[in-house]
Amino acid sequence: MAKTKEQLLNILDQFQLDEKVVSAEPFGNGHINDTLKVTNEKGEIKYVLQRINHLIFTNVDMLQNNIHVVTTHIRKKLEEKGETDIDRKVLTFLPTKDGKKYYFDGDSYWRVCLFIPRSKSYEEVTPELSYEAGKAFGDFQTMLSDIPEGTLGETIPDFHNMEFRLKQLRDAVATNAAGRVAANPAGRLEEVKDLVEEIEKRAEAMCIQERLYREGQLKKRTNHCDTKVNNMMFDADSDKVLCVIDLDTVMPGFVLSDIGDFIRTGANTGAEDDENLDNVNVNMEIFKAYTRGYMEKAKAFLTPTEIKLLPYGGRLLTYMQTVRFLTDYINGDTYYKIHSPKHNLIRTKAQFKLLQSLEAHAEEMDQFMNQWL
Ligand code: ADP
Ligand code: GN1
Ligand code: MG
To answer: Which of 31, 51, 354 to probe ligand 2 with, by most ligand atoms within 8 A of CB?
Structure first.
């Protein structure tokens, strides 16, 4: 439900802000939460207000607790390293006036963090920025590697479990075939038959991580799980990464998630939802630069199996996103925000095209990894 300006200011008034604020305007283009930038009387952006999508993040206590653990852990590491300007290098969430980590207004959950001044995020990166991003996510995983097991909850259970995502697709197909989807009871399945077939062809090969985990050959680590290119802030002057943001999905998982999602978003020559599939291809320079930066920081803790699988991570996360967008399309668009009736189908096709391009470059990517094996 959209909020009026007065309602938003009233929500903001529940938090311990140290400045008077006068407006809250939409910000960014996330698919799940609502993000707003909050300005003071001088027109300066001071805070970021977010409405948490609690239909997706059903355990808001766990969510905000995870974020608290992660941000305080990173802050401590930065202090130990003697870093300066720490408020720009880790997100700072503000408590409510009664000391809570979020505010519930009767129908929505809200949180506020400091806006990072003199920073910017990118939707597209150059190889130089990609190298910086690789180092930043390698550092991020390193800093979080000593959070004791069991401290962080799974904010979305089985979030990057490929077997689970395939099951959701198969359930959606069965439900749609039985004509039980309210939003569009017929038609969508017929329209996507070929895509479902393409997905099924690859299904077994895309569940390697779950199998290796069961066999004890792969462990879980703390991952960001949403390393989209726009989820990190760069310094507006130096173009060095300041801070990793969008921490809702930081949780235990497989290491390929954080390599894969950056390749999926940063190394795509087109947009995630490009209607012109000719635009969509993998940019090998960006892949190489990210990998170089990431390996510089992460090589110390990665196993040879994980290093070898790194290019597979790009294919896996792209495949997973194809499956997730398609599932949502078949289900009648109940999960992702959409901006046109066929948006989820357009996204599916663009992701599938990227997957094909990644497959065509698999050998070249594997060869590139040999320098670390
Ligand atoms: P979403 O779930 O909507 O993707 P994000 O937390 O990623 O939410 O925020 C969306 C965008 O808002 C980011 O890509 C970034 O440009 C900007 N942003 C978010 N938090 C901050 C912050 N603390 N300081 C500056 N910009 C921010
Ligand atoms: C969602 O909220 P946002 O836009 O950063 C999604 C990710 C997907 C992404 C696809 C909680 O991320 O998993 O990869 O869209 N987040 C959730 O763009 O499902
Ligand atoms: Mg985001």
So the answer is: 31
Provide DSSP, 94-149.
Answer: PPBTTS-SSEE-SS-EEEEEE--TTEE--SS--HHHHHHHHHHHHHHHHHHTTSPT
Strands (E), the chain: 21-26, 34-40, 45-52, 103-104, 109-114, 119-120, 221-223, 232-235, 241-244, 251-253
Per-residue confidence (pLDDT) for residue 324, from 0 to 100: 98
Based on C-alpha coordinates, what's the Rg of the chain?
21
Is the separation of the CB atoms in 155 and 66 below 8 Å? yes
Please give the DSSP secondary-structure letter assigned to residue 256: H
More reliable by pLDDT, 10 or 28: 10
Q: How far is CA 332 from CA 67, 156, 181, in A?
A: 31, 21, 7
What is d(CA 54, CA 20) in angstroms, rounded to the nearest whole number? 28
- Ligand 3 centre to CA of 30 (Å) is 5
Q: Model-level pTM?
A: 0.95
The 10 Å Cβ neighbour count of residue 254 is 25
Amino acid at site 125: V
3-state secondary structure of 201: helix
What's the 225 CA to ligand 3 centre distance in angstroms?
11
* Residue appearing with tokens 């895309």: 206
Q: What's the distance, Cα to Cα, between the start and end of the chain in Å? A: 52
Q: CB of 245 closer than 6 A to ligand 1? A: yes
Q: What is the mean pLDDT of residues 126-141?
A: 96
Looking at this protein, which amino acid is placed at residue 140? F
CA–CA gap between residue 36 and residue 194 (Å, rounded): 39
pLDDT at 310 over 90: yes
Evaluate: CB of 48 within 6 angstroms of ligand 1: yes
Distance from the CA of 114 to the center of ligand 2, in angstroms?
Answer: 22
Strand partners, 253: 221
